[in-house]
Structure formats: structure tokens, C-alpha cells
Write a structure and sequence with these properties.
507 residues; 6-stranded mixed β-sheet; 18 helices; Rossmann fold; alpha/beta; 5-stranded parallel β-sheet; 19% strand; 20 strands; Cytidine Deaminase, domain 2
């Protein structure tokens, strides 16, 4: 199918001049609109304005320009069908053999925090998706290109096929075109439905980013969809595994809680230890001291560039992944000696995604991400003794960590470090026992510490056990029918306690 006429109308003009020049060298007549036509004219490429081709002007501030029978007839009529050929001739419809279209930047527009509904609606493309679908439906005769990455493939086909394209290429590009319009429509639906909340359906369209070697276990196939790669750049090391990606995501969510220089160590998405200090090496020592066994094969993340001193300390243990906004040159050279170690550079601010999704039997659970801010704790005191300034600081630190620990979760913390972490237990008392045991194994004293609980203490025994372990203050959501008994137990032990009113279950 030789290409005689092409219609080019693109929002993203990457590579379009060179592509159009390549088409012109094959004698292709080029139709175009608006800014694309100007760009091609300025590059010296002969271009026919669509309004001249159709005999109809662009109207309604450009909203109507390609919605015309001479455009869609030229795309849709079936070549070789006598009835279609006769009707096309009778109506002055000439064939359009190639459509090159990418769409208004709707998703980029709605990504702006200050975007208005009117601005978003103005970026809903109508003519573009219509042309894409018309061309893709008739891919037996028409080639459709929606991605500048495919320009070279079309020109290569034309060189090998005497100015035409193969059915194999047209079919592949048509499928890609339908994926493009489907994703575009889903983005529009998702945005408008969030604004208006009128439709009880959920849609998700994400591009395939990579196929993984396997999932959580070797017998499970797995893929990664979305734009994970826009947040991280892998500088070295083995390819990422399914479990690596889960851990990296959990680490990013945790470190996003902290503004002071902080180092966190995670294993199986749970924090093993977290430390804060102006000196990153000291922050590491605080985090690592919490648990020196669990970090083997774990994930390390920090919110400051990795220094040589920190790299030397980290290199003493085996780690799967190290994540940071940057690596000093000497630090990078030192860590490069471990060929399999994955170094991940953070490319943009790590903010928790707006929605969390989990697959369940027969469906999908969707919820807002757990991004609740820490309340002003001085106004949340429920005990006779208010917490000291140092205890408030420890509460704030520990509360940032405990929300990232699997439930039932208990964290013993100081103002700048974790001291003991108990995760994923069926009983909150058992979680506390594990946290205390971990601290003892690490040789850390819990005297004067703060105990943080992701949900309420259902009975006084958990609070009493924490006090006996050395905790002098407690932070928890409250909400138990026995809250008064727990408060009385705290008063009896001289423990200062606050109720945040916010639970942080993590199943």
C-alpha cells in the first residue's frame, strides 16, 4: 500500500520535521493543521493546510478542523471496494494513507496542582482520537502513527516497500493506536469522575514498563506497569526483581516522611531501623544499631547524597539495593566494587501516590494513600502528666515510622532513632514483646523511650508491659472501649500519653 498522502497533526513535535522530510522525499503529499503546519512550513517542507484540502475553514477556535467527510472518508473508505470507491469519487474524497497524530497533553495538564476544570476540559482532544480511530479501523489500507518512536520504522518500511508499508507494521501500529486512545479516554474519565463522583466504575490504564524475570517466587510470572522509572535511575547492579520493586516503593514512602537527614533500612517492606542525624554516617549507625541481623540482604534509603563515610559503613554488610538522591563520586566508586548491588538514584520528589490498589479475589480494592499528617500532639494529651519536649520529639519520630510497619505494629523510639520494632503480629502484646526483645538483642536501653502503636491498646496490659520495658511516654490512636482503663494504667505508671485520633493499620 503505497503512501500518497499523509495527514500530520501533532502536539508533541519531537522528530516531526525529519519524519515529514523523509515522507516528502518519497513524494508524499502532506496535509497539516495549526502549529504543526507552521513548524513544517518554517522547515521548508511543502504542506497543504487541511482547511484548503477540505474547503472548510477551521472554526470554534480550532475545535473543528479535521472533523470533515473529506478527512474521515479519505481514511475510512475500503480500497478495492467498488461501492466505496464510487462514493469516494462522487464526493470528491481522496485517499489519506497515513495519519500521524499525538494528542493534546491532557494528563500533563491535570498533573498541575493549580489546574482548573475549565483548563482540563479545553485539553480534551476530539479530532485527534477521531482520526486515530478511523485510521486504525482501516489499517488494512491506512497506516497510523501515534508515537514518535515509530517514525523510523515507517520510513524503513517505505524504503524497503517502494514507498509503502507492510500489513504487519500497520497492524502493530493500529493496536498501539487503540491502546493510546483507550488510555487517553481513561485519563479523562478518571479526572472528571474524581471531580464529579457520578460514575460507579473504576478504570486504570498503565503502559508496560518492563517484564520481570518472575514474581515473588520463580514460578510466578510478573510485569511492571506505569512510570516507576521516572522516579528512579538504576546506576548499577542486577536487574530489579518483583520483591526489589515492592521494597523500593515501601522505602520511598517511608523516607518521604522525613525532612532532616535520615537513613532507613528495610526488609520485606518493613523498617528494620531508622535514624536521623546531620551526619549521615551517624544516622546510619543509629538505624543499623536497631537490628544488626535483619538488614542482611535488605534495602537502604537516605534522603541526602551518599557520602564516602556512609558508603564505607554500608559496604560492610550485604545489601540488595541502596537508594539516594545522589552518590558522591568516591562513594559511587567504592560501591561499584559490588557488581550485583543495585544503586538507585532518586530523580524527583518521593510523594506517596494518591491511591493504593490491591488485588483481591474477583476484584480490586482501592483506597486513598495513608498520608495523614501528624496532629499537634500538645493538644492530644489524655494523661495527667503531659509529655516533655523530648518525649514529643520522640513521639513525632516514632509515629512517622510505625505507620510503615505491618500491623500489629509497635515501635520504641527516641527523638532521632528507632530502638525496637515489632511487626506483623496477631497480638499487639506479642508485637511489643518482639520489639523489646529486639532492643535487648541489640543492647539498646528502652529507658526513657516512647512506645508507638499503630492502633489502640485494647487492654491495659500492652501499655503496662511497655512501661515496665522502660517507656515513659506513649502515642496511639485511641478508640478502644477500654481507653479509660488504659489511661488509668498510664497514670499509675507515670506514663505521658497522647491519642492522635488516626489509626495506621498496614495489612
Amino acid at each position: 500500500m503505497k503512501i500518497q498522502r499523509a495527514l500530520i497533526s501533532v502536539s508533541d513535535k519531537t522528530g516531526i520535521v525529519d519524519f515529514a522530510r523523509g515522507l516528502a522525499e518519497h513524494g508524499v503529499e502532506i496535509l497539516s493543521t495549526g502549529g504543526t503546519a507552521k513548524a513544517l512550513h518554517d522547515a521548508g517542507i511543502n504542506t497543504v493546510e487541511v482547511s484548503n484540502f477540505t474547503g472548510s475553514p477551521e472554526i470554534l477556535e480550532g475545535r473543528v478542523k479535521t472533523l470533515h467527510p473529506k478527512i474521515h472518508g479519505g481514511l475510512l473508505y475500503v480500497r478495492g471496494n467498488a461501492t466505496h470507491e464510487d462514493q469516494a469519487k462522487a464526493n470528491g474524497i481522496r485517499p489519506i494513507d497515513l495519519v500521524v497524530v499525538n494528542l493534546y497533553p491532557f494528563e500533563a495538564t491535570i498533573a498541575r496542582e493549580d489546574v482548573t476544570l475549565a483548563e482540563a476540559i479545553e485539553q480534551i482532544d476530539i479530532g485527534g482520537p477521531s482520526m486515530i480511530r478511523s485510521a486504525a479501523k482501516n489499517y488494512q489500507s491506512v497506516c497510523v502513527v501515534t508515537d514518535h518512536a515509530d517514525y523510523s520504522a515507517v520510513l524503513e518500511d517505505m524504503r524497503e516497500e517502494s514507498g509503502g508499508t507492510t500489513l504487519v507494521l500497520r497492524e502493530r501500529l493500529a493496536i498501539k493506536a487503540f491502546a493510546t486512545t483507550s488510555s487517553y479516554d481513561s485519563a479523562i474519565f478518571g479526572y472528571l469522575n474524581r471531580e464529579q463522583q457520578t460514575c460507579s466504575r473504576f478504570r486504570l490504564e498503565l503502559p508496560l514498563e518492563m517484564r520481570l524475570r518472575y514474581g515473588e517466587n520463580p514460578h510466578q510470572q510478573a510485569e511492571l506497569y506505569g512510570d516507576f522509572g521516572s522516579y528512579f535511575d538504576k546506576l548499577q547492579g542486577k536487574e530489579l526483581s518483583y520483591n526489589n520493586i515492592l521494597d523500593i516503593s515501601a522505602a520511598a514512602n517511608l523516607i518521604s516522611e522525613f525532612t532532616k537527614p535520615t537513613v532507613a533500612i528495610l526488609k520485606h517492606t518493613n523498617p528494620c531501623g531508622v535514624g536521623t542525624d546531620p551526619d549521615l554516617r551517624e544516622a546510619w549507625e543509629k538505624a543499623f544499631a536497631t537490628d544488626k541481623q535483619a538488614p542482611f540482604g535488605g534495602i537502604i534509603i537516605c534522603n541526602q547524597p551518599v557520602t564516602v563515610a556512609l558508603a564505607k559503613a554500608i559496604s560492610e554488610i550485604f545489601s540488595e539495593v541502596i537508594i539516594a538522591p545522589e552518590f558522591e563520586t568516591e562513594a559511587r566508586s567504592l560501591l561499584a566494587k559490588k557488581k550485583n548491588l543495585r544503586l538507585m538514584r532518586i530523580l524527583k520528589p518521593l510523594t506517596q501516590s494518591g491511591r493504593d490498589m490491591r488485588g483481591v479475589l474477583g476484584g480490586l480494592l482501592v483506597q486513598d494513600s495513608d498520608s495523614a499528617d501528624i496532629p499537634e500532639l500538645e493538644h492530644k494529651v489524655v494523661t495527667a502528666r503531659p509529655p516533655t519536649k523530648a518525649e514529643i520529639e520522640a513521639m513525632e519520630f516514632g509515629w512517622k515510622v510505625v505507620k510503615h510497619v505491618k500491623s500489629n505494629a509497635i515501635v520504641y523510639a527516641g527523638a532521632d532513632r528507632t530502638l525496637g520494632i515489632g511487626a506483623g503480629q496477631m497480638s499487639r502484646v506479642d508485637a511489643s514483646r518482639i520489639a523489646v526483645w529486639k532492643a535487648q538483642e541489640a543492647g539498646l536501653s528502652l529507658k526513657g523511650s516512647v512506645v508507638c502503636s499503630d492502633a489502640f491498646f485494647p487492654f491495659p496490659d500492652g501499655l503496662i508491659a511497655a512501661a515496665e520495658a522502660g517507656a515513659t511516654a506513649a502515642i496511639q490512636p485511641g478508640g478502644s472501649v477500654r481507653d479509660n482503663e488504659v489511661i488509668q494504667a498510664a497514670d499509675a505508671k507515670g506514663v505521658a500519653m497522647v491519642f492522635t485520633g488516626t489509626r495506621h493499620f498496614r495489612h
